[in-house]
Amino acid sequence: MERWGRLTGMLFQIELLLILVAGSLAAFRLDDRMLLATEAVGAIAWLAMAWAQQRPDGSRFAEWRGTLQFAACWLIFPAFKAIRAVYIHHPADGALLALDRRFWGGASLPEHLLGWEHAWLSEILSAGYFLFYFVVLIPVIVFSIRRRSSEARAFFTGLTLMYLVGFIGYVLVPAGGPYMAFPETFPYPPQGGPITTFLVSVVKNGITGMDVFPSLHAGIGTYVLGFSALGGYRRIAVLLAPVVMALVVATLYLRYHYGIDVLCGLALAAAVLTFVQRYRKECSP
């Protein structure tokens, strides 16, 4: 299974390079200095990741592969904003909404949740959605510190695989989400308070317009929860469960995702966790 982990890293390296190149060309066409600066930082992160990928197993720099893959991923992610602006002329939102309505009995899943809107619920779910960043970053930091362990290798292999497949979905099924594509059907933002207002500003600055299918918020949150539960980190899993549940519901309630996005994100997490469990068994000392 170690070679599968190495193969995942190599494929992710190629994928991020293609995204970086396409994003850089698009940023040049847009003459967007901020995006160009972001692409430059992403290029440095990609070079560091590629260097670690080429180092022999056991070397000091190779131990940072997982951490550098994650860092490069997040730093290159804004390239999707330029790619969306220049190359995506026919987003897939219409098809996703139609499919979601057919799947959920005539109304999409986020449409079913429109009647749930209350200021207090918006505050709770907005907090849950924002906590995604901590759900991901805390284990990344912990396993970066414990980077020599087989658990760290398993965690980063699974996380890299989540992003690898997720980014393919972003490219093949580019969509902005219900609130962006259909504002007349999905009023935005929902009624809320300061937490909701803060989240709206965060999303506005980070949204790319093609990062909906599959839902990596739901998928990666579930992956971290599943990794903890299946790895015997029971107390951590108990703490994470309500946060991840709120996060998954929030993706729909806040009009960021269609139901089909969330289902595919959860299915991806389940598939990756199955792979990671085999990886754990074969690579554990």
Count of alpha and pi helical runs: 14
Largest sheet: none
Note the gap between the termini.
14 Å
When the domains are counted, the total is: 2
Point out poorly predicted stretches.
none
Helix content: over 70%
Mean pLDDT: 93
Q: Look at the helices and sheets and give the structural class.
A: mainly alpha
Secondary-structure element pattern, one letter each: HHHHHHHHHHHHHH
Total strands? 0
Shape: globular
Q: Radius of gyration in whole Å, from Cα?
A: 19 Å
Quick rundown:
The chain is mainly alpha-helical and 285 residues long.
Descriptive labels:
single chain, 285 residues, mainly alpha, 2 domains, globular
Can you walk me through this structure?
- With 285 residues, the protein is mainly alpha-helical.
- It has 2 domains: 1-87, no CATH class; 91-285, no CATH class.
- It is built from 14 helices and no strands.
- The chain has helices at 2-30, 33-54, 65-76, 79-87, 93-103, 109-112, 119-130, 132-145, 150-172, 178-181, 194-206, 216-230, 234-253, 259-283.
- Helix 1 (2-30) packs antiparallel against helix 2 (33-54), helix 1 runs parallel beside helix 3 and helix 1 packs across helix 4 (79-87).
- The longest helix has 29 residues, at 2-30.
- The protein is globular, with a radius of gyration of 19 Å.
- The protein starts with a helix and ends with a helix.
